[in-house]
Specification:
about 350 residues, six-stranded mixed beta sheet, five-stranded antiparallel beta sheet, globular, disordered N terminus
Length: about 350
């Protein structure tokens, strides 16, 4: 790559109070974020949550109704997209079909009037980085999906941008290739020290890739935290339900350390919540095994998933619950549908979150 790489080029991104409406739809509701130089932040949320709108505002393709976008403290809200020094990779790659691999990667350098010899050098170095050396003369249609993705990534980083934006770039790839590309992008991002925003609705992808995750819903930020914090200490029951597999029940604290669920079950919890407070209680399927809270029910379905199986169990009070167990074998067969089982959960293995009921 060119002389300026790594954290000396990585930009600090700030968005302050970004609001964007489309008619009656509030796509962004006062979103504020700070992203450190060299950090990979994933914007995670369901379809329609405002993820892509946020990315387009940062890139300059959408103008906010209110708020600012800053890079290294400089307000770039009104700066045209081509002047923002931002690389972007789209889900559909947006490669020029009539240009070769080298031509696609060279394009942003040509637009910046870089000298021909320098273009040749940078294109060669960047294609080597994404493991496409020797593919310079091929056209996009002669490449696999994964190779096209690498070309799009090379084009986005060849001019040493201060920011890299990735808009669901793996959505068109099959599962195995997607997992491979996730690791490759993370490796490259760390090697180059690029400040990166990654957009996805796939929570597993977010957990694999991110330094931090920002969960967005209906245009509003729900939580911004590390991957561990998001999973282990969700801010509310929307985050708890959206990130990872979950069983969430609501109830009222009847005494300190105890909650009575709406269906009548009493649970011991590790919480200092006050009597009368409404709570959401999150129980991850993989945490069941033994503990003071006992759950008895009938297995309705068992889904084998290789290393583990997911049991869907109907409790005696009629509540459904999902329980993940290691895959059965000759020594430990899984209970068949219709079997009655009892499992426990320690108070410390449930997660208490503020109730966010509608």
């Amino acid at each position: 790559m060119a002389a300026q790489t790594g954290e000396d080029r990585a930009g600090k991104l700030g968005v302050e109070g970004l609001t964007r409406r489309f008619g009656e739809v509030l796509a962004l509701d006062g979103v504020s974020l700070d992203i450190a130089p060299g950090e990979l932040l994933t914007i995670l949320g369901p379809s329609g949550s405002g993820k892509t709108t946020l990315l387009k505002v940062v890139a300059g393709f959408e103008k906010p109704d209110a708020g600012r976008v800053l890079v290294d403290g400089r307000d770039i809200t009104a700066v045209p997209p081509a002047k923002r020094d931002i690389g972007m990779v789209f889900q559909n790659y947006a490669l020029f079909p009539h240009l070769s691999v080298a031509g696609n990667v060279a394009f942003p350098l040509q637009m910046r009037n870089v000298a021909s010899a320098e273009i040749e050098r940078r294109v060669g170095e960047t294609l080597a980085l994404v493991e496409l050396a020797g593919y310079e003369a091929r056209l996009p249609r002669q490449l696999s999906g994964g190779q096209q993705q690498r070309v799009a990534l090379a084009r986005a980083i060849v001019f040493n941008p201060r920011l890299l934006l990735l808009d669901e770039p793996f959505g068109a790839l099959d599962r195995k290739l997607r997992e491979t590309m996730q690791l490759e992008v993370r490796r490259l991002q760390r090697r180059l020290g690029l400040t990166t925003i990654f957009i996805t609705h796939d929570q597993e992808e977010a957990l694999v890739l991110s330094d931090r995750i920002a969960v967005l819903n209906r245009g509003a930020l729900q939580q911004v935290a590390t991957t561990t914090e998001i999973y282990e200490r969700p801010a509310n029951d929307f985050v708890a339900d959206f990130v990872g597999e979950s069983n969430i029940f609501h109830g009222t604290v009847t005494e300190v350390g105890s909650v009575t669920l709406d269906a009548g079950r009493r649970l011991l919890i590790r919480s200092a919540a006050k009597v009368g407070q409404r709570l959401g209680v999150l129980m991850r399927p993989e945490r069941f095994g033994g503990g003071a809270n006992s759950f008895a029910g009938q297995v309705k379905e068992c889904v084998y998933q290789g290393e583990s199986s997911l049991l869907y169990v109907w409790l005696a009070d009629g509540q459904p619950i999902a329980i993940r167990q290691p895959a059965g074998g000759t020594q430990r067969p899984l209970p068949p549908p219709g079997a009655l089982i009892t499992l426990g959960l320690a108070p410390a293995d449930s997660i208490v979150v503020p109730a966010n009921e509608t």
